Protein 1
Amino acid sequence: MSSDRIEKQIELKAPVSRVWRALTDYQEFGEWFRVKLDGPFEPGKVSTGHITYPGYEHVQWNSVVQKIEPERLFSFTWRPYAIDPSVDYSAETPTLVEFTLEPAPNGALLRLTESGFNNVPSSRREEAFRMNDGGWTEQMKNIEQHIAQTPLLV
């Protein structure tokens, strides 16, 4: 693993279609990710909202949806660990977050990759990588718990 890329994976005990809904339905995504999004995900469109995770409620969600390939790939770009409301991060090159899904023996294999940390300004690169690495570990647990608690959510 390089310092330019975070990779996580988890096998979820649910069909690919169930995990897909948890990833791409903006309201359901918000439940497990702890973000209140303003509207649905649409390729090429900006997704906005605010984080609801305790201690981070001041953080605005701002991403650009890149791809939605049903039940296979959902990706967006964002600026990692952009949490200081007094800093303008808009000139920074965003990282790419990709969720990929495939069938697995007991359900679905979810892979997460966030790449492009080498483009984050050096003054905050190490902290952004460290915080997002830990954050994605928690988010994988969050989606697993969410799906286990709401297996039949439609």
Protein 2
Amino acid sequence: MSLYLAAEDLSMFGRDPWWLVVIKAVFCFAFLMVTVLVSIVMERKVVAWMQLRVGPNRHGPWGMLQSLADGIKLMLKEDVIVKRADKAVYVLAPVIAAIPAFMAIAVIPFGPAGNEISIFGQRTTMQLTDLPIAMLYILAVASVGIYGIVLAGWSSGSTYPLLGGLRSCAQMISYEIAMGAAFASVFLYSGSMSTSTIVEQQADRWYILLLPLSFILYIVTMVGETNRAPFDMPESEGDLVGGFNTEYSSIKFAMFMLAEYVNMVTVSAVATTLFLGGWRAPWPISTFWEGANHGWWPMLWFTVKVQLLLFMFIWIRGTLPRVRYDQLMKLGWKVLIPVSLVWLMLVATVRALRNENYDFADIVLYVGGGVLALLVLSFVVDMFREKSKQAERPAETPAAFDPMAGGYPVPPLPGQELPPAPRRRSRRERELIVSGGPDTQSDGSLGGSTDGKEASDD
């Protein structure tokens, strides 16, 4: 396989009549909406199960219509526009946040490109369309959605929504870099940016096995991109009330909620396409059943994989607490980005050696030796750097701790110590003081009548 982009055969796309394009577009929209409705109910029930409580059980059989009831409730609520809001941008922001979430599904394959299905007698592929740069298209439309959140926070005319919008903008920028590096590893192995070609290249082995670190990096970044727990800092109710959507109500608030869940489905579909074989049947099934990847069956395997990733979203939310904002940014800039860039260099090196017809054992030897040499060099440099810092560091006495610096109670800084807490008087000592006995804290005695006599004699 060449390191450069392979020549894709995308001639089967763009030949559908207009009415069939409309049907496929409506199907993509309906697939997202139905998956969102199922995901909301599943999230409430799964988190309730994890926390040993009942969960929704009133609306519909087993509470399965709870998400539909939530949508009706939000649509019937009073729609309020705050007085200080920029009304045009305030109304437009939820639309900008929701629409790009639906656009990425257009290039996701639900089935093999060569396996055409019949819809009203017309043969067509199980994909709306595909592009030679389909993955760049997904990154582009995903980046547009951030404008809706930022504009929502700015146009509300309130402090907390503005802070939530700024947090979301910084978070998106930080995590999209590592996400792009994880995508680049897949591009190097598949030789293409076309989604259908990437799935076709996983016929023998899924990329989760060849690129496990890329999969882990993408899982972390997709949780950060969707502003889900533990990375839900833009809407953390503990310090921002509700974040960028604090001043929104009714259908506009519902659109932000819809955009979040649609983005969850979209990034899960992208992860399925890039790392989990897309529409391909799992390994045990594909070995003994030849028709597992034909007809309408590929859509079933694709849907099951997406649902498993959505369950992972819910599992993470029910398990991990929210991180601090400095921890969020440190993870993005100091961990994910360096690791993703180093991993991308290793993948590119392996692909270049494979193109030069090197044996796998030689590649492992060269790459492993290079990584080991870098680790040893880094350890030696850090060791000498720490010794030089200790030698140059003057003996500094920590500054005295002022617990009321600036007029407010403050915690001690690193290197400072709390003053010793005053010893609390015992009940016996308090009774002696009230009854006219000696102050036992001053003379150290817990005395009775004899101590009082000696004190009076003194």
